[in-house]
Structures
1.
Amino acid sequence: MRTRCCLFPLLFFVFAFPPSMAFAQAATASQKSQPAGNVGVAVRVCERCIRAHEEFLASDALQGRGSGTHDELVAATYVASQLRQYGIDPAGDDGSYIQRVPAIQRNIVSPPRLTISPPGSTEPIAWEYGKDFLAVVLTQTDFSGPLRKIKVDKLDTGNPAIEPGAVVLIAGTDENKVKHTAFSLASAGASAILTLARDSDVNHFEEAGKQLPKVANQLKDGSADDKKFNVLELNHDAVDAIEQLPEGSMVKFEARSSEEKGYTWNAVGILRGSDPSLQRHAILFSAHLDHLGIGVPVNGDDIYNGADDDASGTTAVLELARVLGRGQRPRRTVLFALFGSEEMGAIGSTYFGNHAPVPLKEIAANLEFEMIGRPDPAVKDDTLWLTGWERSNLGPELAAHGAHLVADPHPGENFFARSDNFVLAKKGVVAQTISSYGLHPDYHQPSDDLAHLDFKHMNAAIGSLLMPAEWLVNSDFQPKWNAGGRPQ
Ligand SMILES: [Zn+2]
């Protein structure tokens, strides 16, 4: 929403309810072995709460909750205040809900250089920033690799194998397919993706090129951030020129940068379990509270509100906190974590993985919520899907207890590896993401705003999870990876 001059050109990356107090009836869970807590008491979704969270988090006032910005801290503070209201105890720094994550903020200080050297050539071809190319996502300030060219229109299913470290030019008429191939190849180890700019107009390039690109922050303690994701957009002439070059030509990107101290913020709460025999089997509900902030204007709008990505997931976690925080404590310990800087390298969740309020081996399962604000046409109405469905016994069990939850209908997108859950899954926690992202065109656009949410869907989908969640936090059920399901 709204207009203002452009700041930084962040577009791609990783992967984030109507009137009165009318309640929607939640789905009925099966009644087998229902213990303490509020289980069995009708659980109703609070439509007003859902709408209220979205109206604040996705408002223009929060300016898109840019990763590591003051706006992200405001979002984390809002979440903290809601958790307090819902009876969840603080589990952040010094008795607060906020976990302040020290980060290194890298700033690019001069226009980056892009050069390509065909095999055997002595003189590389040089490209100019803001004229020939733009950087839309950077997790590195320098990278290089052999050129690989892929035309997505010729791909039937799946992605072509690429050598790790390749710089891949992806061409095609279907913008969504280009974008999704880019994500998949980036997670498959490409150094960088080159694509034709969505807006190749000279004026757009000049306007966007006035701002130096933003680069992902790094965790201060240097803990592993192995995510390489660099996306450059090229104008028509540059794409045509590269099309003529042989594969294997060496592509090199360099940008001078300076470093300064920065932070990102998580909001973390805990409900201590009442059953000592289940103390080591906590359940973690999570989402990311950051989004892309202010960026290159699209149709005069430069605020990337992220109403679906991931104010909707944050809202779902808050609604679970509201329901689980009322009345008696659940048998298991329940953690609520809303992460900062998912969009800039999953920094908040990586830090959480090293500084969780309980040891990670005592977290039996993590459910991350990403983009549940609109229905996915690939599945039935009011339904959510779970990434890595076949990897564990968690999804089928939740569905058996009434959750409107099915297998991820887009396995080729590798969503399992594209959100905060993956950080914890790699550390052994049974960690998966719940979503209903239907590959809509507003993804990572300023138009991912309140006007494009489907509150009816959100109410019903979140409502269907309330009783299964109550069952889960009061049950002896052991979430487990299936054979071969745990990521290496
Ligand atoms: Zn997201």
2.
Amino acid sequence: MLPHFLDSTVELITRTSTDLPPDVRAAMRSAVQTEAPQTRGGQALTIIAQNIDQAASCEGPICQDTGMPTFEVKVPVGANQIELRLQIREAVAEATRRGKLRPNSVDSITGENSGDNLGPGTPIIHFDQWLEPEIEVKLILKGGGCENTNAQYALPTDLDHLGRADRSLEGVRKCILHAVWKAQGKGCSPGAVGVCIGGDRTSGYLHAKEQLFRTLDDMNPDERLARVEQAVMEEANRLTVGPMGFGGQTSLIGCKIGALNRLPASFFVSIAYDCWAFRRLGVRLDATTGAIASWLYREAATPSVPMLPAGTADGFPRTGREIPLQAPITEEQIRALKVGDVVLISGRVVTGRDAVHAHLMKHEPPVDLHGAVLYHCGPVVTKGAREGEGWKVTAAGPTTSIREEPYQAEIIKRYGVRAVIGKGGMGARTLAGLKESGAVYLNAVGGAAQFYARCIERVAGVSLLEFGTPEAMWQLDVRDFPAIVTMDSHGNSLHKEIEEASGAVLEKLGARS
Ligand code: SF4
């Protein structure tokens, strides 16, 4: 039994969830400097930068989706791995109780949330032995939005816009560019990719994820792979996908490639996409006490250098052209909006994501949705321990909207919803539904959970709590909640435009080979 191991692991989880490592901060700072501040991409990055600083200063989750906790543990010979595994699980439950992790472990058959992030397969813990005297624990928190944009290719194959990808490094380059292009804003760009060439389907994905433990500024020791990494970085940032898929010059902040041997018949390229909320840290521990001896990826447990200069005003960087919207909203107000408008929403916003959408297809909503703003969001909420203390939202960014595509148009029409807030955009069926019913899709900045939590004045109520806190229907009173109209009621979609424009660039990059 190591007396400090549990506390050290809780500290590691807390830091990882709330404070981005210096290499990611440096990459994001460079992105902020690249995009012009008054562009959509520039505004999104300013919000992201504020969010990063806010999360570190209040020790709140950087993004409300605190992801799948994945631990890579190296132990000296003789360490009791059974005991360490139990303590890591206890640390995960404790960090969840403290609101540093959102309850994210859901029974795949019943949909029931375990409430403490423990369950079959969660958290993921990998052990290895090594010859060092200390214990090393590395942790990555990778959320669902970016996990869903992972991709695996079996070469040779044909790719949209890029043509044939052969079994060569050139084919690998094309696959990575294709994956970045497909991710658009759904994985909260700018992101980073870990890539594995080879292996089998299982080991390929694992090795791809392991590449994300490399720092963004390191150099691949294999010169051939280093060249591909560099080429992808240059080309992906010419795609014009931009921050959150809003268009711009920064789509990728890192590309890390590894290779495993493969069977002669197989040639997989596995890609693990991580978002800008690239939460990865590690510690070295004294193997006799479990106390933290040193941090990996950061100097010490002191707060990181802020993203924004001291004195930068908090809040949305306004241009004076923002349109205030008070919920409930009328059809006339909605029809006046067009793609590119920035709105500031005040009044009641109702959350709803996967479970709520499936529920509303068969049941009446528990609250009136006429004129409502429906927010695709699974917040982190805590309840005061004392009698009479209510709910508090501590992180509340948007989730990926495309998952609700099969339901959205019908729910808008049936219940009179006027605005949907989410991220990454929606498809043709929803676009047609917005036009028919007089509604808009508003894109908020993905992962900016602290920023948006500060726009919430009050939790007015909650319904369907039996779905678990991320999936419940929270009624939130907000003030000046900023979002961009990216799909309007006239059939226009910024997402479609950016996808087409970036597809044309991709075509040129494909023709290069
Ligand atoms: S920043 Fe976006 S993709 Fe990343 S975990 Fe948060 S919501 Fe998911």
